[in-house]
Each structure stands twice: as C-alpha cells, then as structure tokens.
Amino acid sequence: MYTPGAGGDGMWFVKFYAPWCAHCRRLEPIWAHVAQSLYNTAIKVAKVDCTRFPTVATHYKVRAYPTIMFIKGSLQHEYTGEREKDDMVKYAMRMAQPAVQRVTHADSIGYLKESHNIFFGYVGKTEGILWEMFALHAEKYQPHTWFYVMSKDVIKNEIDGPHNETAVFVYKEDGVYLFDASEDLLRDQEALNTTLDKWINTERFGFFPKITRANINHFMDINKYIVIAIVSENKLGEITQTERDFKDMIESIIRKKKSELHENFQFGWMGTPELANSIAMSDLTVPHLLVLNSTTSHHHIPDDDPVLMTPEAVVWFLEQIYNQQAPTYGGDYWLIRLYRAFFEARTTLGSMWRGNPVLTALVFGLPLGFLSLICYSVFCSDILDSDEDEEIESHEKKD
C-alpha cells in the first residue's frame, strides 16, 4: 500500500480506488498488467483503497474514482489518458524520464523513429530564449509526448529538415515539420511563448488519431476544424467492411493532402457513435462524417450520404466549411447546452431501459411513487380537512 512519503524521491504510479466503484473493478485486471509491465523498472506500481485510507486520498486531493496519479518526489501528475495498458505504461515510462532527454549518437535517431510516432526535437546549444521556451513547454507537455535535444552533427544524416544552427522540429509519422522561429519572434519573449505553446499543442497529435471521451477536450484546444470519421466498434474492436472502407477513405485524404489541409483541419476517427451523437444532438447512422469547429463548438454534417461520398466530394465539403458556406449547426449557446443535456439524459435513460427495463423502472418508479405520495399528502390533506370542517358545521347548524 502506498503512503505519502513512503518512497522518498522514488517514482510511484498509483491507482486510488473504492471497492464499490464499478469503473475501478473494470480497471483492476488492466492495472495488474500495468504492474507486470513495469515490474523490472524503477517505477513502483501501487493502489490505495480510499475507503480504508481516507487521509491519503485527502492528501492527494482525490475527488473521483478511479484516480491514477504519477508521483515523483514533489511532482504529482494525474493521468487523464486512455485506460489501456499500453497507454498507461508509455505514460509512466515517459514521466520517469527528464522532460528533455539528450541524444548524443546518430544511431539513437533511428531508434527514436521506430519507437515514437511523434517526438519534438531541439537542435543547437542549450542556451538562449528559444531553448528556455522549449524546455519550459517540454515540462508542460511531457505527459503527452516526448522531447529531445541534440546537436546538428547528430541529426545531419538522419533527419532532413533543420538547416539552421538552432531549430525546433517535430517528427511525425515519417515526416519532419519545423517551427517557424523568425528573428522578430525571437525578440519577443511573450509572443514566442504563446506561439510555441500553440504549435506544440497542435502538432502533438497524429494525422489520424482515435478520438474518445478521454481526449476530446484536448482536441478542442487546437483551434482547428476536427474532421471525424464515425464508425461503431464491437467489444473486440472490430468494424464492418463498409465502415472500414469509409474510415480508410477519410484517412487517405489527409495522408495525400497534408500540405493543403493540415494547417486548418485535424483528422481523426471515433469508434463509438454515442459521443458523436451527443455532439450532433441526433442519432447518426454509421459510418458517418462529422466536422467540429473546436473554436466555436459548431458542427457540420454533409447533406449527402457519407458512404456514397468520394474523396473529392469530402475535400469540396471541407472547402465549403472553411469558406463558411456550409450549413452550421450547434454551438455553445445556453439553449444549445440545455438541449444537449436533455438529449444526453434521454439517450442515457433509453440505453438503461433497453439494458434492464425492470431495474430502470425501479430506479425511476420508486422516487416518483414517493413523490406522488408526498404531493398527495400535502395537497389533498387540505381538501379532506375542509370536508370534515363543513360536515361539523352542518351538524352544529342542525343542533
């Protein structure tokens, strides 16, 4: 059992849970695999029953179950990614390292390319405003991606891109993209800080990542249009051939037109239509196409059947959206938020009824029954008392 300060300056990957929590019980076998994967590392994997040790939960400000936290000395960081073994192991291994790691041999670049789909690099001497900003943002985004520092001699035969003595780049899925550090930008520290932060936050995603409830809020911070291919995975992660063809078609668009679309559009896919239905506030068929404006929360849906759309038709639809000529739905107005809450409540109630109608009837029927009794006793008791008073008065008059 983990207790505060037990590991000194050691590294702990801790799950805070409650025995009655269904989400915690579902996570238990995955957490066991995480512990096995990290067994031969310096990272200690632990779990804390917050019902038995509430002071520990209070110390780490645990407000929900399960909460997963990486603890390294005075550093405490809550894990908010996917609750899958590989994702959690990669996160823990990344957090165990310095925020910026130095690469000294050219042979290491090949290993980085094989082991990381995305990583950020700084080329040059570790001094000056660009290095300071790079190191600062590396600490901020360490939970999400990898950062390295290297000399120009190390990368000159391994990475084609940085030609200046000092540069910042991102290696993303076999391509290299440079940060535009102009002389004017380097003279303005505040502007450099803002621009580099926005660039790293935007470029840390792949060209066609999976979008889930756990990470969609991260995508909403990139100020792009999010192009989402919606399919429906079964419990084994399988989809129909029609859905696969549609998903591959959408992915092929960004692969072939990176230079044209990447600046304004972030492509991705969803394996569960429920999240897309919540955004669109309607029941979408699958496969489907949804474009979400991460700045205004508006969304766009094509008028044509997405299954029948060609890559050219999709690109034309995106051009219409960018030029603000496509129909716009949703938004972030209070009426929209109210209707979305109603839609999600209706959807949740419907899924509960389909899954277990008896339990749903009990959950909602008993409170409604008690509420009816209370209303009856409050409002009908006055009527009964009034009838009794009238009856007494009539007897008195007869007497």
From TrEMBL:
Cellular location(s): Endoplasmic reticulum membrane
Phylogenetic placement of the source organism: Eukaryota, Metazoa, Ecdysozoa, Arthropoda, Hexapoda
Main localization category: endoplasmic reticulum
Its biological purpose: Probable disulfide isomerase, which participates in the folding of proteins containing disulfide bonds. May act as a dithiol oxidase. Acts as a regulator of endoplasmic reticulum-mitochondria contact sites via its ability to regulate redox signals.
Xref: PROSITE patterns: THIOREDOXIN_1, THIOREDOXIN_2
All copies of domain Thioredoxin, residue ranges: 1-98
Record's keyword annotation contains DNA-binding: no
Family matches, as InterPro entries: PDI_TMX3 (IPR052250), Thioredoxin-like_sf (IPR036249), Thioredoxin_CS (IPR017937), Thioredoxin_domain (IPR013766)
Domain of life, source organism: Eukaryota
Family annotation (Pfam families): Thioredoxin
One Gene Ontology CC term in the entry: endoplasmic reticulum membrane
Annotated membrane topology: Single-pass membrane protein
Gene source species: Papilio machaon (Old World swallowtail butterfly)
Coiled-coil region(s): none
Gene Ontology molecular function, alphabetical: isomerase activity
Presence of keyword Transmembrane: yes
Membrane spanning stretches: 358-379
Keyword terms of this UniProt record: Isomerase, Membrane, Transmembrane, Transmembrane helix
Name of the protein: Protein disulfide-isomerase TMX3
SUPFAM superfamilies: Thioredoxin-like
